[in-house]
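Sat 14:20. Reprocessing the chain from the morning session after the first attempt stalled halfway. Input below, unchanged.
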Amino acid sequence: MPGKYRCAEFTDMRISINELEKWSNKNMYEEKVVLCGANSYEKKYYLNPDFEALPQEIQDELKILCVLYTEDVGGILTLVFEEDGTLCFEVTTEDFDPMFDEIGSKLKIKEIQQTKEELLRSLELYYKVFFLGEEI
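Finished this time. Tokens:
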């Protein structure tokens, strides 16, 4: 139902590691691993190809989550896994962005963490098992 969401103008993209580093200022294979992200400035969404094995429903839910966040508050949202498998939200903005809502950003992330708790925990478990090789 792309028409139902304001985010229909966002496009899927495949970007190089160098372009992704501009988004998150991190190399996705050093310490942290990028799961996905959305950029309100370029109107683009990114899913790390390493996670294309996730069920399509999960991929769609991540896209909606990220894109709606950036449409609501602006900036760039990147979901990254820490070394220990913890899933974190990283938010960056262009310098002096008057449209970015810093307070709204914190509130929106808190809301996502509460309403999508099961999804986020499942993603952490998936990462720990399939990427870190941990036993359940």
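Residues 1-10, 24-29 have pLDDT under 50 and may be disordered.
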